[in-house]
Amino acid sequence: MYSILEKYGNQKQAITYAKKLILNHNCNNFAIHNPCTRVHLLVEELNGDSEALNEQIKQKSE
Fold first, then answer.
1. Cα–Cα distance between 12 and 43 in angstroms, integer?
2. Residues contacting 38, CB < 8 A, separation 6+
3. What is the model's pTM?
4. What are the pLDDT digits (tens) for 11-34?
5. Most buried of 6, 18, 25, 37, CB within 10 angstroms?
């Protein structure tokens, strides 16, 4: 599965789509958001692209 996703997938586009889906919901009850997950936030953190996490790391290192 990983090799297929690596070859044909587009992680940046998937994150863009996920962010657009979140905008369709106006409440914080994420259990009822369908189709919508917050997995892209984890992916951004794992990639080192999370501004919030990078800011926390920066503050701790000062």
1. 10
2. 18, 22, 30
3. 0.68
4. 999 999 999 988 888 888 877 888
5. 18
